[in-house]
Write a structure and sequence with these properties.
The chain has eleven helices and twelve strands. It is of the alpha/beta class. The strands form two sheets. Strands 1, 2, 3, 4, 5, 8, 9, 10, 11 and 12 form a ten-stranded mixed beta sheet that branches. A two-stranded antiparallel sheet has the order 6-7. Bound molecules: ligand PBG.
């Protein structure tokens, strides 16, 4: 048969396949989310996230050694405070758990890139990401607290702040506060397209941040909406976001693709807790080949347009990439 085009020619062996490969998973693009809590000598595995832990500061410091040794360049920090209150004061306290963790990390590993999640939900007793009045999550009064949170993290030494609350105007409020206090050089990675998702379940177990009433649908986006994600991203970019996040990642490849096409700025895909938990559960049952599945899923995010990958698999991936070399 005379066929002019035979795509199989370039699939003949691994040498040519790797020569024409379009996308790659690189450890340089990996951001590893970590949870810190008070206490000493505590390393508590999150039951729905095997291999992911809540660390007390001493154990966190030890764990960072491994992150750095594996060449993972960045961590994204979440705090589990000792006590919660209605205004989430643990989020913006000078000696809050995340602020302490940032200082420790930068002191021991100055080259590790430390990113902090900016939100109130881990710190409020009601579990919502903003202040509550008459059962409603208030937008504008929350902005000051978010700005204070980002500022306190920058003062502690954070390299980048990442607001995940989904209040309107938070990027502008944070940008203004940082600039005013001498942190104009600190970039904002905004969770721009963050959907109200069932895939955050394991994270909320870990952070004890499940809303005590209602849900997050009045601030996080409806998963049915793609155009709205463009609007949210538009606003964040306009307000000064340096990097945008699409979250979750696996079921939102279209959003990664559309936002990357339109804005062109660095984009991070957040491969969230529920996505991690599903893979781990299936792998533990021997139903899937974990390494293959994880690399394939992460590649799909890259192919869609992601530059950075925020994933609980980061250390696993770093180990696999190392073995392959
Ligand atoms: C805080 C926050 C959440 C996640 C990241 N930042 C939880 C939520 O919005 O309920 C989820 C991360 C994950 O599931 O891995 N707002």
């Amino acid at each position: 048969m005379e066929l002019k085009r035979r795509p199989r020619r370039l699939r003949a062996n691994e040498t040519i396949r790797s020569m024409v490969r379009e996308n790659h998973i690189r450890v340089e693009n990996m951001i590893y989310p970590m949870f810190v809590m008070s206490g000493e000598k505590k390393k508590v595995e999150i039951s729905s996230m095997p291999g992911v832990y809540n660390y007390s500061l001493d154990e966190f410091s030890l764990a960072l050694r491994e992150v750095v040794d594996l060449g993972v360049p960045a961590v994204l920090l979440f705090g589990i405070p000792e006590s919660k209150d209605s205004v989430g004061s643990g989020a913006y306290h000078e000696h809050g758990i995340v602020q302490q963790a940032v200082r420790l990390a930068k002191q021991h590993y100055p080259h590790l890139y430390v990113i902090t999640d900016v939100c109130l939900c881990e710190y409020t007793d009601h579990g919502h990401c903003g202040l509550i009045e008459n059962g409603q999550v208030m937008n504008d009064p929350t902005l000051d607290l978010l700005a204070n949170t980002a500022l306190s993290q920058a003062r502690a030494g954070a390299d980048m702040v990442a607001p995940s609350d989904m209040m309107d105007g938070r990027v502008a409020a944070i940008r203004e506060a940082l600039d005013k206090e001498g942190f104009a050089h600190i970039p904002i990675m905004a969770y721009s397209a963050k959907f109200a998702s069932g895939f955050y379940g394991p994270f909320r177990d870990a952070a004890g941040s499940t809303p005590q009433f209602g849900d997050r649908r009045t601030y996080q986006m409806d998963s049915a909406n793609g155009n709205e994600a463009m609007l949210e991203t538009d606003l964040d970019v306009e307000e000064g976001a340096d990097v945008i996040i699409v979250k979750p990642a696996l079921s939102y490849g279209d959003i990664i693709y559309r936002t990357k096409e339109k804005y062109g700025i660095p984009l991070a895909a957040y491969n969230v807790s529920g996505e991690y938990a599903m893979v781990k559960a299936a792998a533990a049952n021997g139903w899937i080949d974990e390494k293959r599945i994880v690399l394939e899923a992460l590649l799909s995010m890259k192919r869609a347009g992601a530059d950075l990958l925020i994933t609980y698999h980061a250390l696993d991936v770093a180990r696999w990439l190392r073995e392959e070399r």
